[in-house]
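User: Fold this; tokens only.

Assistant: Input:
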Amino acid sequence: MKKYIFTAVIVFLFASANAQKVKFGAKAGFNLANLTGDFADSSTITGFNAGIFAEIKITDKFAIQPELLFSTQGNKIKIPVYDNSSVIVYYYDGKKNLTYLNLPVIAKYYIIDKLSIEAGPQIGLLLGAKVKYSSDRALPTLYTSKSEYDIKNDLKSIDFGLSFGANYDVSKNLYLNFRYNLGLANINNEPMSSLNIKNKIFSLSLGYKY
């Protein structure tokens, strides 16, 4: 984490020294998040992202954009309950709510004046993680019909991924950003579990730069 932040700062300072123009701003938007891996039935949840950034123009066509974003992520799962004959009798719902502080460092290339494509690495710091179980009937073992548990210790504190996307400048100051973040790190931290869990997020954001 410290090495990544140090590298990001060096890139930021070098780019600033050689940049034609630096624009600062804020952005916010919606997430469609999921967790990929060894889940029988996983589906997306809606979340949000919000934070600040600096767009550092290196040339007319190329820019570097470090960001600091608060992001809510996770997934929904359906967990089967079997009878003595191994037949599924019903399901109960589980929802993981994860919160991250993400630091992407994005390279942007302007195809035309208002349209750019982007890609870059992202590191995430896990701020919190909870799972909620619910059902219309009594759940097995320790679960009640509505139960919530803190699972932060079951997940690794650091995530790493790659982001890809596109931007469209609506006006001089406003722009739309579409981004897909592909998690590369297995965030499962349970010592007795072999689950390979990775983040996956689609986001649509509105940014303001000045």
